[in-house]
User: What shape does this take?
Amino acid sequence: MKVAGHVPTRRMCLVAPVHVCSCPPPPQLQDEQITGHWSEVERKAFMELFLQYPKDFRRIALQLPGRTSGDCVAFFYKHQKLDEFANVRRKQQLKKRKVRGGRAARRGNAPKWGRTSQRPQL
Assistant: This one.
């Protein structure tokens, strides 16, 4: 009900207003919050396990206490372009070449059965 000449008053807030920022944290802090800090021991263990089980993050996470497969995936994709991963990739490629090289060498040097007998006589 409105009364002529009455000006509505505002209620006073007894609690100080709290400023809530809805903006996201900087990317560096956001990544750190998601994956947590990896100690040097965890990094080395991850590298060794990654050599044994390339991109099998579930199996790697099972052997790293306190880490999930999501943590391992985030760590890998965050650090894959660094020099420490270059050595790991190089070792994996050499390992693949040894395995494939043995089979490929046998396949490439194998005798071609029946080729001479299939030539047309002129």
Observations:
- The longest helix spans residues 83-109.
